[in-house]
Design goal:
mainly alpha
């Protein structure tokens, strides 16, 4: 679960010690507070993202291997694969994009990112959770 990670720029983990998994919200077991609602929507989004990455991994083996690139390069690889995927979906295979089996990684000397807690992003998560809770209405969340 992502709750083991700290809030940091660009990453908002679910709240710790709060219901998270979709199965915990089954039936009429709706969220009872803003943190549960945030975690429910976070979990739902996570499932969707995992499905998308599964589809990308099926198309691009480089994403299914143990990463040996620095984090910033990994981000660029995912973006490049998404762009190539969208190109192929829109235009079909093309001689401009070589077969993945012929790809050769570029060496990089970029430093590895440090994991640090970021209070500003923790506050941002709280603001998002507040907005979700205040705008939930009386419909099924």
């Amino acid at each position: 679960m992502d709750a083991g990670y700290a809030c940091r720029p660009g990453f908002l983990p679910p709240y710790r010690a709060t219901r998270y998994h979709l199965k915990e919200f089954g039936g009429r077991n709706y969220p009872t507070n803003k943190k549960e609602l945030f975690n429910l929507r976070h979990s739902s989004l996570r499932v969707t993202v995992e499905r998308a990455f599964g589809a990308l991994k099926n198309c691009f083996r480089i994403l299914d291997n143990k990463p040996f690139h620095p984090y910033k390069t990994q981000v660029k690889l995912v973006l490049a694969c998404c762009i190539i995927h969208n190109w192929i979906v829109g235009h079909g295979q093309d001689e401009v994009f070589p077969d993945e089996a012929t790809w050769v990684p570029n060496p990089s000397n970029e430093p590895v990112d440090e994991v640090i807690d970021n209070a500003a992003w923790g506050l941002r998560r709280d603001e998002i959770a507040d907005a979700m809770w205040n705008n939930r209405g009386h419909y099924h969340v």
